[in-house]
Amino acid sequence: MTEYRNFVGGQFLDGASLFDDINPVDGTLVARVHEADESVVDRAVRAARKALGGPWGRMTVADRCRLMRAVADEIDRRADDLLAAEVADTGKPEAGARALDIARAAANFRSFADVVAAEGVESFLLEYGEGRQALNYAVRKPLGVVAAIAPWNLPLLLLTWKLAPALATGNTVVVKPSEETPGSATLLAEIMAAAGVPDGVFNLVHGFGAGSAGELLTAHPGIDGVTFTGSSATGAGIMKAVAPRVRPVSFELGGKNAALVFADADLDATVEGLTRSVFANTGQVCLCTERVYIERSVFDEVGERLAERARSLRLGRPSDPATTTGPVISAEHQRKVLGYFDLAERAGATVLTGGGTAKVDSDLAGGFWVEPTLWTGLTNSDRVVREEIFGPAAALIPFDTEEEAVWLANDTDYGLAASVWTTDLSRGHRVAQRMDVGIAWVNTWFLRELRSPFGGRGLSGIGREGGRHSLDFYTEPTNVCVAI
Questions:
Q1: Burial status of residue 426 (CB atoms within 10 A of its CB: 0-12, 13-18, 19 or more)
Q2: Cross-sheet strand order for the sheet of 17-22
Q3: Order of strands, edge to edge, in the sheet holding 123-127?
Q4: Among all residues, which ones are annotated catalytic?
Q5: Intervals of the chain under pLDDT 50
Q6: Contacts of 147 (CB under 8 A, 6+ apart)
Q7: What is the C-alpha separation between 171 and 173, in angstroms, rounded?
Q8: Interatomic CA distance for residues 143 and 401, integer angstroms
Q9: Which residues partner with 135 through β-bridges?
Q10: 363 in the Ramachandran plot: left (φ > 0), alpha (ψ -120 to 50) or beta?
Q11: CA–CA separation, 445 vs 452, rounded Å?
């Protein structure tokens, strides 16, 4: 049986106990995972602190960026191994995981190597009387030891989105992947070592959140900052943990994202886009659409066409090229999603399609399958429309005017993403700019420019990352003032 161990100071370490890594496709055991106790977490933080004062801390920017590109090359070389680990943990179709998750992991390291290599220093020339001058310039220094806590929905992609800028700017890291998806992070430890990353720069601890490695890590006095992607509730808990030490945080949290469909939209392209934005990765993407507001004159047509596309999705094994949709991540999450299905029924929703546990082949019966689901008959006051489901489901709600559509979309405690579907270019710009979100798409979805700012507001997070925006979190500027 495969075992996933902690990685500290360049060595793999056993944990105090073991827990199971389960394949969500059929419920089989993937691996046994070593849970880090307080001593392992402490060793990891101390190893990271020691590495800051070693060769890593003296490495030039050019040399660090070359090392980041070497990591990307090693990811490419180990792509098949990473794919196997990612698919075993998440159950997502292989074709999509290879094209997105694995490819983006390598791209993240190359992109941030380019950003950091090109970054200059900010400077000002101050004139302060009688012809005297002072030169002020800002030097960016690493934040220090960064705790990077990654989610289970896009484990490798989102972990490398944190690691690449953190390492490229000279920090050291202690990583905690989700207990649901420990595989690719463990392989990444091997990749870091093979690429020549010095011991202690990358450390990995496995475990759970409260009362386990996650809580131990975020509460450790040796941590200088925390970057976290996950639920809003967990983000709030991390803020409490770091508050006594006033440590900075970067959070990308939940979403209850809206799509606005206007009657003049290209409906073929819109239905295609909504199929992706509602059901991609079985709805388990923070950017997925869970609220679809449709202009009343095309409401029935869009609903019927989207329901038809939902019914055409193929649930099955990741290795089957015909598979479009995998399971949800766990039995616990399946219960949560199905619980919202029950809430929708009690609220009087009309089910256009889905609404329950998906029927799959008998060899997959042990997996965690949910039907792609669409509802009508709900309003913004219903819990199903206000709370994040994080599954393959969305509520379709009609609107009559642009003002109403904007109000409905912004009537939420979340603020991560939105999409606007219209052939009116002026309306597209106008409405997108009025969305209270971190990113608003017009006639597309999930199209990302890695140098642009990314993040959320409200319950969807704190801070922005991407390109040079990441530098504002992962570095601390020191202003140097020289009288000349």
A1: exposed
A2: 3-4, 29-35, 17-22
A3: 123-127, 133-142, 475-483
A4: 252, 286
A5: none
A6: 173, 174, 176, 217, 218, 220, 223, 225, 226, 227
A7: 7
A8: 48
A9: 125, 482
A10: alpha
A11: 15
Residue 156 structure tokens: 């490798």
| Distance of alpha carbon 339 from the chain centroid | 24
Provide the 3-class DSSP secondary structure of residue 335. helix
- DSSP for residue 197: P
| Residue 278: CA count within 13 A, CB half-sphere | 29
Cβ density class 382-416: b for 16+ within 10 Å, e for less? bebbbbbbbbbbbbbbbbeebeebbebbeebebbb
Q: Which two tokens mark 352?
A: 């256009």
pLDDT of 129 reads: 87
| Residue carrying structure tokens 């999705």 | 313
- The pLDDT of residue 239 is 94
- Position of tokens 């705790």? 147
Output the six-digit token pair for 65.
């960026």
Select from 358, 259, 362 the least CA-distant residue to 310.
Answer: 358
Best CA proximity match to 235, nearest among 221, 255, 220: 255
pTM exceeds 0.85 for this model: yes
High-pLDDT (> 70) share of the chain, %: 100
Residues present in the chain in total: 484
Check residue 418 and give its pLDDT: 98
